[in-house]
Amino acid sequence: MWDERYDSEQYAYGKEPNDFLAQQYQQLPKGNVISLAEGEGRNAVFLAKMGYSVTAVDGSKVGLEKAAKLAIEHNVNIELIHADLAEFDFGEAKWDAVVSIYCPLPSAVRSAVYKRAVKGLKPGGVFLLEAYTPEQINYNTGGGPSADTKTSKNDLEDDLTGLSFVHLEELKREVFEGSYHTGLASVLQAIAKK
């Protein structure tokens, strides 16, 4: 599905970073950042431009090829890893930050991935997330029809056990990110520290 979505000259979610990330990136310690389900590279490229060492993980080779082009266009380097997040090894105390922007995993997979990501964070590391809430299925503005791939506050608190939340909010906001995320949306925003 994702290879098909990204197989176009257009960038499915645009070339600009996610708004929440762009507003809050300074909450991330400088250093090694891993961006989950990075797709075509917009958030990774933005973070690289801001001076971070960025690793982008995605299951779509087509998306990562476009991420590489976007990085060249902006004259930055990002490490690209083609992997299934369900099986990805984050290591232990390796990352200064984990970024998860609209990472639509089934709940059981998401929970396991996020628990491994917490292990992968260094002490003082930060996990930054924006995701659709289950209420998003009532909107036709992105995220698909499955409530199971959405994240609630309670879900995230369970998934990120061991982190302290600096910010955790469910809200409605206008999202304008390419042709697939457009309009009023129900989102969860979080910043949590190890």
UniProtKB/TrEMBL annotation:
GO BP field: methylation
SUPFAM superfamilies linked: S-adenosyl-L-methionine-dependent methyltransferases
Entry keyword annotation includes Methyltransferase: yes
Alphabetic keyword roster: Methyltransferase, Transferase
Start and end residues of each Methyltransferase domain: 33-125
InterPro entries: Methyltransf_25 (IPR041698), SAM-dependent_MTases_sf (IPR029063)
PANTHER family recorded: PUTATIVE (AFU_ORTHOLOGUE AFUA_2G14390)-RELATED (PTHR43861:SF3), TRANS-ACONITATE 2-METHYLTRANSFERASE-RELATED (PTHR43861)
Protein name (record): SAM-dependent methyltransferase
Source organism of the structure: Pseudoalteromonas carrageenovora IAM 12662
